[in-house]
Hints:
The protein is α/β, with parallel strands linked by helices. It is about 55% helix and about 10% strand. Strands 3-2-4-1-5-6-7 form a seven-stranded parallel sheet, with helices on both faces. The mean pLDDT is about 85. It binds guanosine-5'-diphosphate. The site of guanosine-5'-diphosphate has 15 residues, from helix 5.
Amino acid sequence: MEHPENSTEYAGLQVNAGVAQPAIVNPYLSSMRKKRHKLFTAGEYVEGILKGDVSMLSQAVTLIESVHPDHQVLAQEVIEKCLPYSGNSVRIGISGVPGAGKSTSIDAFGVHLLNNYGGKLAVLAIDPSSEKTKGSILGDKTRMEKLAVHPKSFIRPSPTAGSLGGVARKTRETIILCEAAGYNHIFVETVGVGQSETACHSMVDFFLLIQLAGTGDELQGIKRGIMEIADGIVINKADGENVEKAKLAASHFRNALHLFPMPESGVMPQVLCYSGFYELGIDEVLKMIFDHIGKVKESGYFQYKRNEQSKYWMYESINEHLKNNFYYNKTIKELIKPMEDDVLGGKITSFVAAKKLLDEYYSMLK
Ligand code: GDP
């Protein structure tokens, strides 16, 4: 249509007809992208993974994260086939509140580990908040600049879909694939808030807690029961003027640790100061971790804990499956909202409502 301002009333002003905008994505590239998402057979994925093919590993992890039922079936087949090749790694959980310096530290620990201890390193994450923000925050490659370009590293952000239990299960399954692909060191990063730490703790051999000096967090950590699950506590940012404060915080933590019973592992957690940014004290932290692993392997606690974790995940999977089966049931989905309204309206008690729904569900199972 001719622009109204091209009428003679607006002499001297010429508005050209618009030009169609080119596609944002190069059509050639988008066809390439479609090709990349081609599904392989479970055997092909496993073959690629066992060869250490990073692209195949990434695509298999994408299958694990997918909510598509066909993808899930395929993913389970891949996981099952990878299981015999898994388990041969040291799994390290790294936790700290936002700003504690997790990504800076993982970058420093990771590069130091690969350069001095060899092997391969996978960095995974459990970040339940990513469900809300629709973008995973932890494990983002751009946050770990040196590690991201290291040929022996594999970095994967947190899965985004589902409940914390679901996100954690996917991370645990990803560990299996990474181990089958030859990653003998696994870092699992998690935010130091809420339940995600417990979930992370249930899949790692060593749980490292990153703390800062002088934030008042020292006490909070103790309150929240975090101290009981930490195998080692490290005070980051021990650089410049902060060194003395960090040392003081470390001694507070050491004192506090004496108030707790000896951990189940039989190894007293150590408290160290370091600087992730200036790369000071990094080797001491890694040594602390590997000393601990050596001790628990010798005592048999390492294997005991892994067995306990497998048991835990069996029950977790059953719980999750049962819950999903109930909540995604078509009839239950229809009944649940009116029932909730009745509870809110005081027409029925919560317990009676729950029983009615469960009875309805059980009657469908018969
Ligand atoms: P995250 O949210 O726990 O992943 O924390 P980041 O690694 O993103 O770090 C948060 C901020 O602290 C950034 O501005 C870092 O540069 C800074 N930081 C991290 N480690 C150190 C350190 O060892 N010393 C100092 N001075 N700053 C650090």
